[in-house]
Specification:
By secondary structure, this protein is of the alpha+beta class. Helices cover about 25% and strands about 10% of the residues. It is built from two helices and three strands, in the order βββαα. It has a three-stranded mixed sheet with strand order 1-2-3. β2 and β3 form a beta hairpin. The radius of gyration is 17 Å and the shape is flat.
Length: about 100
């Protein structure tokens, strides 16, 4: 992006959910998984997913074709995740 090189992401539209469902309290995984013997003064953050600002991308390529960052954002805002599923996921993540 900084060098005017087009950047594309390729994914299916199931990725279009609010980042709060992916990254947030209780969503970090065990630091031990990445660095079992990390020194005490080193903070290891282990996230399986992280949010990437859509502005970084030229387009997002999906099963629906090439979407602009604005269209991708509109679709993500409309995406619904079942509340029972998110509650279950939060309970699961809080155990690990």
């Amino acid at each position: 992006r900084e060098h005017d090189v087009p950047i594309y992401a390729v994914c299916d539209t199931s990725k279009f959910i609010d980042a709060d469902y992916i990254v947030g309290p209780g969503r970090d995984r065990s630091a031990h998984e990445l660095w079992p013997d990390a020194p005490q003064e080193v903070v290891v953050v282990n996230r399986y997913f992280e949010q990437t600002p859509l502005a970084f991308f030229t387009a997002i390529v999906t099963e629906d074709g090439e979407l602009s960052p604005d269209e991708t954002a509109r679709r993500a805002e409309r995406a619904a995740v079942d509340e029972e599923l998110t509650d279950a996921l939060a309970r699961y993540c809080s155990r690990y």
